[in-house]
Design a protein that fits this description.
The chain is globular and about 50 Å long. The strands form three sheets. Strands 7-5-4-3-2-1-17 form a seven-stranded mixed β-sheet. A seven-stranded mixed β-sheet has the order 8-9-12-13-14-15-16, covered by helices on one side. It has helices at 42-49, 67-70, 73-79, 185-192, 212-223, 238-245, and strands at 2-7, 23-28, 31-35, 59-61, 84-88, 95-96, 115-118, 121-125, 128-131, 148-151, 154-157, 165-170, 173-178, 196-199, 229-232, 251-253, 259-261. The relative contact order is 0.17. The protein has six helices and 17 strands. It starts with a strand and ends with a strand.
């Protein structure tokens, strides 16, 4: 597998922009996959700067219905008129930040013909499968950090039912791709136990010099129990990554413009 980050919160490449968001280009099992699209058109500009043509994508996946992962959806549809975009049937629900600021997708796009709405599990073929895991038990408690959603006309605590994960099975290995792991990075590892995990850990709200340290310590301890190689980014947080890295030798950071071979 070859994976390139088109958008992430950080970059070391002068020709590549950074923004709070995520967009990954995946080449696996003969397929070219766009996973998430950042919050603006920057992912497309970065793709061009890095020599990639979005029109060649065979399919796209939207991990969940937040603006920093699906804000570039319209631009992708403009650049690629044939690839299907797979997203949860809950992705266009209304989502809000801590201060009740809308952080959802552009609702005018939900009738686009290229969109394919998924449920609990969706086989894409060629060793690619999407999982929502909404029916699975969450052994480890997760903190929504103030994120909310609109359900039945009432704003309630976010349950992230709109989030899905891409499992790639290639050459006898299992690679899990996650956008933000809102349902809990520890739960994901418990459910999938992949050889490689790529994605955000959703830990950026934890302080690294207070009570948050206990959570980070326990997270590192439990993740180290798996033989998994981790490539993290985005909502993990750079300070939180630095803290975890001193405790997790198999943890790596993925920045915009970077390519890894798995």
């Amino acid at each position: 597998m070859k994976l390139t980050a088109f958008i992430e919160n950080t970059t070391d490449c002068p020709e590549v922009q950074a923004e709070h968001g995520l967009s990954l280009w995946i080449e696996a099992n003969g397929k070219k996959i766009l996973f998430d699209m950042g919050q603006t058109d920057a992912f497309a500009e970065n793709a061009a700067a890095l020599g990639y043509d979005l029109a060649t994508a065979d399919l796209a996946v939207l991990s969940h219905g937040h603006y920093d992962h699906g804000g570039g959806l319209r631009r992708f549809l403009e650049r690629n008129a044939s690839a299907k975009v797979y997203l949860s049937r809950y992705a266009f629900e209304e989502h809000f930040s801590l201060n009740e600021k809308p952080i959802g997708l552009d609702p005018t796009l939900q009738q686009e013909q290229q969109l394919v709405f998924t449920d609990e599990e969706y086989a894409l073929g060629d060793g690619l499968t999407l999982y929502a895991c909404n029916m699975r038990e969450r052994t480890y408690r997760t903190d929504p950090f103030g994120l909310t959603m609109l359900r039945d006309g009432v704003i309630v605590e976010e349950d992230f039912r709109h989030e899905q994960y891409l499992l790639v099975e290639e050459n006898g290995r299992r690679i899990l791709i996650s956008g933000c792991s809102h349902k809990g990075i520890l739960n994901l590892m418990d459910w999938f136990r992949p050889d490689v995990l790529v994605g955000g850990f959703h830990l950026m709200k934890l302080e690294t010099n207070s009570a948050g340290c206990a959570v980070l310590e326990e997270t590192a301890r439990l993740l180290n129990q798996y033989p998994t190689e981790y490539y993290t980014c985005h909502c993990t947080g750079t300070d939180q990554y630095a803290y975890l890295k001193t405790r997790m030798p198999r943890l790596h950071y993925l920045s915009a413009g970077q390519t890894i071979h798995i």
